[in-house]
């Protein structure tokens, strides 16, 4: 992936790593005149040059096609000024992959799963349904299969060796939920149960909407007191069904 984009020129570009609004100076025409705070800069693979920077914070992935187009247009304009060849479309695809990959490996994403899912689609294209009508080649199916492999169990056992004693974990758990309330403990246990029952469980936006609905229901039940007001019940089966 990186080798192809690096063939056109030697060396490595310098990357800032924190291109945020706080580190950019612009003039009245919104032209960038200065970039500050280079303390943690480093050289990076040339392919990373083609990754659209996220604003206002580097962790923010740019999905607006107009902004991506503006970045690429400006990049190509400056590229032509120094006599470089036209950037091929597959190079931009590599830049898109790098955008996802760097946010994943830097552990700086608000939700990690979106990035390997997008990378999988960029590399392999659309998934192919299995003969039984279920997707067997998509990312959740592959991850679920690998999670039950011998190597996965061996790694889990190795990592568990560094865990704190069960008694200490229980003590801290009790201490935490004594502070935030038993409702959150019940919610956490339901989510853990849903993940256990569904090997393809993903904590995405559906989960957070369900959690908000549960908390809103409980808060409403408390405020209503003894009044009998019909409410839609959010059951354990709904948790599994929705997530």
Automatic annotation (TrEMBL):
Origin, by domain of life? Eukaryota
Q: Name the InterPro entries on file.
A: Kinase-like_dom_sf
Q: What is this protein called?
A: Uncharacterized protein
Q: State the species of origin.
A: Venustampulla echinocandica
């Amino acid at each position: 992936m990186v080798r192809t984009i690096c063939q056109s020129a030697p060396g490595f570009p310098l990357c800032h790593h924190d291109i945020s609004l706080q580190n950019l100076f612009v003039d009245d025409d919104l032209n960038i005149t200065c970039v500050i705070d280079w303390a943690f800069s480093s050289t990076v693979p040339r392919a990373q040059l083609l990754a659209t920077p996220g604003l206002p914070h580097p962790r923010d992935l740019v999905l607006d096609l107009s902004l991506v187009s503006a970045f690429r247009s400006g990049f190509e304009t400056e590229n032509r000024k120094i006599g470089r060849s036209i950037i091929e479309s597959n190079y931009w695809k590599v830049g898109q992959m790098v955008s996802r990959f760097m946010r994943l490996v830097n552990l700086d994403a608000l939700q990690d799963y979106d990035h390997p899912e997008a990378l999988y689609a960029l590399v392999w294209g659309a998934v192919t349904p299995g003969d039984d009508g279920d997707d067997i080649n998509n990312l959740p199916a592959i991850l679920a299969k690998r999670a039950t492999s011998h190597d996965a169990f061996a790694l889990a056992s190795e990592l568990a060796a560094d865990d704190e004693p069960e008694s200490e974990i229980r003590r801290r758990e009790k201490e935490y939920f004594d502070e935030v309330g038993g409702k959150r403990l019940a919610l956490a246990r339901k989510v853990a149960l849903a993940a256990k029952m569904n090997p393809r469980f993903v904590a995405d936006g559906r989960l957070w909407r369900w959690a908000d609905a549960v908390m809103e229901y409980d808060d409403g039940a408390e405020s209503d007191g003894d009044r009998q007001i019909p409410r839609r019940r959010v059951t354990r089966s709904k948790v599994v069904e929705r997530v």
